[in-house]
Amino acid sequence: MSIILDKVSHIYEAGTTMSVTALDNVSLVIPDGQFIGLIGHTGSGKSTLVQHLNGLLKATSGSIYFNGEDIDAEDFDKKRLRSKVGLVFQYPEYQLFEADVFSDVCFGPKNLGLTPKEVELRAYEALKLAGIEDEYFYQSPFDLSGGQKRRVAIAGVLAMKPDVLILDEPTAGLDPMGRDEILEQISKLKKETGITVMLVSHSMDDVAKYVDRIIVMNRGGVMLDDEPAKIFKQYERLEEVGLAAPQVTYIMKALHDRGYDVRLDINTIDEAKKEIMSYFSRLAAAKRRR
Amino acid sequence: MGVIKVKDLIFEYIRRDEEGNVEGITTAVDDVSLDINQGDFVSILGHNGSGKSTLAKHLNAILYPTEGTVWVDGKDTKKDEYLWDIRQTAGMVFQNPDNQIIGQVVEEDVGFGPENMGVPTKEIWERVEESLKAVGMYEFRKHSPNKLSGGQKQRVSIAGVIAMHPKCIILDEPTAMLDPKGRKEVIRAVRALNDVEKITIILITHYMEEVIYSDKVYVMDKGKVALQGTPREIFSQVERLRKLRLDVPQVTLLAHELKQEGFPIPEGILTKEEFAEAIDRCADML
What we know:
The structure holds 2 protein chains of 2 kinds.
Chain A: E1 3-12, E2 20-30, E3 35-39, H1 46-53, E4 61-66, E5 69-70, H2 78-84, E6 85-88, H3 101-110, H4 116-129, H5 146-158, E7 164-168, H6 176-193, E8 196-201, H7 204-208, E9 213-218, E10 221-226, H8 228-233, H9 235-240, H10 247-257, H11 269-289
Parallel strand pairs in A: 3-8, 3-9, 6-7, 7-8
Antiparallel strand pairs in A: 1-2, 1-4, 4-5, 9-10
Helix pairs in contact in A: 3-4, 3-5, 4-5, 5-6
Chain B: E1 4-16, E2 22-36, E3 41-46, H1 52-58, E4 67-72, E5 75-76, H2 83-89, E6 90-93, H3 106-116, H4 121-134, H5 150-162, E7 168-172, H6 180-195, E8 200-204, E9 216-221, E10 224-229, H7 231-235, H8 238-243, H9 250-260, H10 272-285
Parallel strand pairs in B: 3-8, 3-9, 6-7, 7-8
Antiparallel strand pairs in B: 1-2, 1-4, 4-5, 9-10
C-alpha cells in the first residue's frame, strides 16, 4: 500500500503571467504504516502536495503511483483512491452538515454502496476510533465543542476505511488541552489500526512527540526528510525557512552554550528533564570523587 | 478611566432547538470587569468556549451587554451614535483571514478602512504603505489576496486595521493559522505597535509563548475571569492552568517539572535565559 511520487511538479495557472510553481520536482516514497509529519511554512507547498495524494489535484508533470498503479492512467479508479487515501481538511468541522453525529459519519460509507447494516457498523467503529462516546451519537454535531466536532469530522473520513489518513493542520484553533487530546487520539488510532498517518502542520511542538518521520517542505520542494531528532538538530536550517524546533531544543542549546555538557538532540520536555537530571547526577558524582 | 473599561458585564443568549423553541439561556460572559489603560498590552487566555471571544466582541460593539456597561474611550458601546467612533477607536482582527479580506488587490483592501473614514487620498496611500510595511507585506501590495497563503492574508488583515489608526487593537487568535515565522512576525509587529505607537493591544491567544510580553494577563473560564496578573504570576500556577485546560510555555513547564524533582528552581520562569541562570544556581549549590 505504498505511495510513490516520481518527480512531481505542480504549477498553478501554467502558461499565464500569473503562474506559480507550488511543487517543484518532488520525489517521495511513503511506505505502509508510517507516522509522518509534513512540515513547512505557509505557502511551502504542503497542502498542494497532499491534494495530489488522493487525486484532487493533477500533477503538471511527473507521476504518482498508488500500490504500483499510476493514478493518472485512463483506467485508474479515482473514486477508490479517494476512499483509500482519506484527507481531513483544515477546519473539517465546517463540513459537518447532518442533523446528528451518527448520520454525518454514515454519509461517506453510504455512498460506497454498502448495505445499511455495514454502513452503521463502519460509522460506529469510526466514531469509537475518533474517541466519540455513545452519548453524543444522536446529538446535533453543532452542539459539540470545537475539539469534538473535529473528531466527528475525522470519524467521517475513517468510516471510509482508508489505508492512508492525511490530516491538514488538525490542531489549528484548538486550546492546548484540545490540541493534546486530538493528537493523542490520532496517535492511538494509528497504533490500533496500523494505517499510514500523515500530519500536516507547522507546529514542530505538535509533531515532535508523535511521528517517526518528518518531511520538511520549502519552496515547493523537499528540503529535509529524516527522523525527528535528526531534523531538529538542524534548527538553524529550519529557521532559515521560517520554521523552528520545539522550545526545549533551544533551552538545551542555551545550556550547552553556557558550558553544560548536555545532549542537543532533544525535542520533548520529558527527554529534557531526564537529560538535565542525569547531567546533575553525573556532576554530583564527579564532585564527590574530588 | 482607561481606554477600555468594562463594568459588571453579563452577556446571555437564548438557545433554541430546530423548531425555534427556547431550550434555555447560556451565560457566555458572567460578571466581568476590566479597566485597560491606553498603551497597555493585555492578553486574554482561556480554553475554547470560555467566553473570551464573546468578551472581545463587546469591546468594539459587535455585541452589546445584557447587563453591565462597556466604555471605549469613555463612550458607552450601547449608544448607537458612538458606533462608528468606537469601531474606529478599537479595531478588531479575527482568526480566519478568509472572512475579513474584501479587496481585489492587497493595497486596496488595506485602504478600504481609511477610505470609508473619509481620509484624503494622498494620506490613504501613506497609511497603506506604512501599514503594509509594519506587517512585512509591502512587497505584496499589488498581489491579489486570493493568491496569498493564510499567514500572508492575516498580515494583510492586520494592516487593514492599523491603517485606520486605532487607539486599541483587539486580536482574536490572530496567529492560530500561521507558521512559526508568521507568528513571530505578527507578534513582533504587534509589540512594535504597542512599544512605538503606544497602541493598546488586547491579544486573545492559545499560544502561551505569545503572552509573556504582556503587561497583564486575564484567564477566562466559564465566562468569568478566573485568574489575573502579570505573566510571571499567571505561569507560576502550572497545575491551576492545567485544570483550566491551558498550558504554560515549555520552558516554564520544564522548570516546574525539575522543581518537582527537587531542583531549587523558582516557579514562573519565562525565558530560556532565566532558566539557564536558575540551572547555574543549581550547579553552584551542588
